[in-house]
């Protein structure tokens, strides 16, 4: 089985973005499954480090606007890069404060060049995969500009985060390979412009979302869907939530040592005390990560923070320095130094250590599509406190008085401060009065695994069904 994948971000970056990282893991998991995968993305000189590691392997002309392109390869044979420095030799991927006005031309060119290369080397895929709005045009361009070679192939579109889209004036429709007949509300039109994201969804055989919970949230929450609620619900049979996996060789802090989890957690706790220069005493440690996709977690915690300070708990807040949350929680921490510490959000290595040294992850209002933060907490043997509607919640087992397989503390509405506080009190009480029970919950959390290979197994099953 063969697939062509087109993504605006992927490959051997010096510091992969979240999207590039996810596409890279998916690509490697495809290869491990025995699937022949050709992943094409732009050649970004600004993000690739030592350019002498890359080699020119092909020159051609794409068919959409008859522009020349080059294909380069690095050390990873699974990735091919479309090089056209006029489009991709810039300092940013999409534009910094303001998106580049020609983004639609840049990424339609990426798609067309990838298809031209695929045709030239006689790579005959069974299907085409597009990632996010930058790969959304792979469906219509394959069915139109390259219809002789690829017109009959199914198009699968993975939406990593529906928040990101690019809108194009109607006058640009033909330049990016779209048939004008579908420029309407039920097609790819959005408030008089072309929505590149809608285009991908409209022409897709299946639309894959990074978790089952994210699919349900998009279909039921018009605010989250960015004005596409009606369109998504009309196309809901196309939408499928498949949980993104996790790289356990990195996120499992005990992966190499393989110590008993209780022993490993004690060592991680001591390391975190040393890092922060503080002793947690006998308190349970609650970690709260306040980043972009934590949504309104900061507000939820603020509502109950006075009550949280009364628990036998130590709260660690990770957030961006000098942000609103940073200034607010720092003021509380200064008054309660034995109960709270505010630290800057750091690297993944730092996050892994903080999760490993903590007992509970406080994740209210989490809006990260794949809910990977919850999976990372589980890999650290840290019990997530979150909502039943969070992305991966359908895979979790709530503690309801019986340990059994329980590995999480779940509430009906994670935006409800009273519900979060009640479960937090429950967790702190179990930690203090029933350590054997708590140890079982921690062990259950640590034993949970959702590898990227499981994601690809579901992707391939979806392809078979289609």
Question: What is the topological layout?
Answer:
Elements: E1 2-6, H1 18-32, E2 36-42, E3 55-61, E4 68-73, E5 79-83, H2 85-88, H3 103-120, E6 127-131, H4 138-143, H5 147-150, E7 155-158, E8 167-168, E9 189-190, E10 193-195, H6 196-203, E11 206-209, H7 212-220, H8 229-234, E12 239-241, H9 248-251, H10 261-276, E13 284-290, H11 297-308, E14 313-319, H12 324-335, E15 340-344, H13 348-357, E16 360-362, H14 372-379, E17 383-387, E18 409-411, H15 417-433, H16 435-447, H17 452-465
Parallel strand pairs: 1-2, 1-6, 2-5, 6-7, 7-11, 11-12, 13-14, 13-16, 14-15, 16-17, 17-18
Antiparallel strand pairs: 3-4, 4-5, 8-10, 9-10
Helix pairs in contact: 1-17, 10-13, 11-15, 15-16
Please, could you describe this protein's structure?
- The chain has helices at residues 18-32, 85-88, 103-120, 138-143, 147-150, 196-203, 212-220, 229-234, 248-251, 261-276, 297-308, 324-335, 348-357, 372-379, 417-433, 435-447, 452-465; strands spanning 2-6, 36-42, 55-61, 68-73, 79-83, 127-131, 155-158, 167-168, 189-190, 193-195, 206-209, 239-241, 284-290, 313-319, 340-344, 360-362, 383-387, 409-411.
- The strands form 3 sheets. Strands 3-4-5-2-1-6-7-11-12 form a 9-stranded mixed sheet, with helices on both faces.
- It contains 17 helices and 18 strands.
- The mean pLDDT is 95.
- The chain is of the alpha/beta class and 466 residues long.
